[in-house]
């Protein structure tokens, strides 16, 4: 016989299980290892809110599909995201390349892995849930976020459980995690079983990543006050509203690709209000590689434009898959003049009007206005919210 009080189970001592004397019972805490490891950073009796966060009514995109966010699943995902045990030498976690202080991006051009550095710059993980594009990585090789989450773990250079080049394989990682006390408790807590599988790891990590959202920007304050993005935002300066109009409005080109009127057409690939990437986008004209060898025209994905920089304008790391763009001015300038590089057979059709690389002929006022608008897309909560922070004590 046993009683249940809160989350502590009272288990009878074997030799006196038939006795009604309460002194023969000992308290077994099902979360002892969680408490011992994380202290007050994780409290199974009072979880952070991941499942029911406020989402503005004007946000309509959602790629959650069948993996709905739960507080238990995202809590497990948070631990997995920050745990260096997921790397072969216990030095690298997902958060090593996706840092909360940088909108879950990296300030290094190439991120450090267990056996070298990444081949492309680490993409920021902001509002990944709110996008029509369901594929992941710059070259879209992962069919969805769930698949993506364990691919870096199984990469020889990144986290080292590749099963090649002398690495252990993913099953070895599962064995490793299965022998860790807090994972026994966390998987039981989230799934009702201590059994660890790759699918469970993927589901939990994806729930945590999709929970990372940013909707407290100056843009969001303004958007909530109007019926649509085309209207002037009452909280914007004249310059910010001008930049918004330039961002949203398509350009008008002559027969040789020169802009004669209209805006910049940024929304053709990054539509408001989510500012995610259009799934049908081609290459954006950046075809270099980090190591400088050859060209790479397969990069057609991009993160949301939200939180490109912090509210003070400090970049959250370099931009593009090569990290070659380091300022908003350089980013706008890149799209101002698109050259048809030899070998780039995958250049987005929107960047080559009438077969010519677009020439936007931007003036300083337009550049400054678009930069001012892009800065309105940055919030503050994503950098400080504890539920997305490292649960492991320093």
TrEMBL record:
Chief site of localization: other
Gene3D superfamilies, sorted: Cytochrome c-like domain (1.10.760.10)
Keywords: Heme, Iron, Metal-binding, Oxidoreductase, Peroxidase, Signal
Subcellular location: Cell envelope
Residues in Cytochrome c domain copies: 72-181, 238-378
InterPro entries associated with the record: Cyt_c-like_dom (IPR009056), Cyt_c-like_dom_sf (IPR036909), Cytochrome_c_Peroxidase/MauG (IPR051395), Di-haem_cyt_c_peroxidsae (IPR004852)
Superkingdom classification of source: Bacteria
SUPFAM superfamilies: Cytochrome c
Alphabetized GO MF terms: peroxidase activity
Pfam families: CCP_MauG
Annotated PANTHER family: BLL6722 PROTEIN, CYTOCHROME C PEROXIDASE-RELATED
Name under which the protein is recorded: Cytochrome c peroxidase
Organism: Flavobacterium cheonhonense
């Amino acid at each position: 016989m046993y009683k249940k009080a809160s989350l502590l189970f009272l288990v009878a001592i074997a030799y006196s299980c038939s006795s009604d004397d309460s002194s023969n019972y000992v308290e077994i805490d099902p979360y002892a290892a969680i408490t011992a490891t994380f202290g007050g950073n994780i409290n199974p009796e009072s979880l952070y809110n991941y499942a029911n966060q406020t989402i503005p009514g004007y946000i309509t995109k959602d790629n959650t599909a069948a993996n709905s966010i739960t507080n238990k699943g995202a809590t497990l995902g948070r631990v997995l995201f920050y745990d260096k045990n997921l790397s072969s030498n216990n030095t690298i976690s997902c958060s090593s390349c996706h840092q909360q202080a940088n909108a879950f991006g990296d300030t290094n051009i190439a991120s450090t892995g267990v056996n070298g550095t990444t081949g492309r710059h680490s993409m920021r993980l902001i509002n990944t849930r709110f996008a029509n594009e369901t594929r992941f990585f710059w070259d879209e090789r992962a069919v969805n976020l769930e698949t993506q989450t364990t691919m870096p773990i199984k990469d020889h250079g990144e986290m080292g459980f590749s099963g090649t080049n002398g690495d252990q394989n993913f099953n070895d990682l599962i064995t490793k995690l299965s022998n860790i006390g807090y994972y026994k408790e966390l998987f039981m807590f989230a799934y009702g079983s201590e059994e660890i599988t790759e699918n469970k790891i993927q589901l939990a990590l994806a729930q945590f990543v999709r929970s990372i959202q940013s909707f407290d920007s100056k843009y969001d304050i303004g958007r909530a006050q109007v019926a649509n993005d085309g209207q002037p935002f009452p909280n914007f300066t004249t310059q910010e509203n001008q930049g918004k109009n330039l961002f949203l409005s398509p350009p008008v080109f002559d027969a040789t690709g020169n802009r004669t009127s209209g805006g910049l057409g940024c929304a053709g690939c990054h539509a408001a209000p989510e500012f995610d990437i259009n799934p049908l986008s081609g290459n954006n004209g950046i075809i270099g590689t980090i190591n400088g060898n050859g060209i790479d025209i397969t990069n057609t994905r991009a993160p949301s434009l939200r939180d490109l920089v912090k509210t003070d304008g400090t970049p959250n790391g370099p931009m593009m898959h090569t990290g070659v763009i380091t300022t908003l001015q350089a980013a706008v300038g890149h799209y101002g003049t698109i050259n048809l590089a030899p070998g780039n057979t995958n250049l987005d059709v929107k960047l080559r009007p009438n077969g010519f690389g677009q020439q936007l002929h931007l003036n300083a006022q337009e550049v400054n206005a678009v930069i001012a608008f892009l800065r309105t897309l940055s919030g503050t909560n994503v950098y400080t919210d504890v539920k997305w922070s490292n649960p492991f004590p320093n």
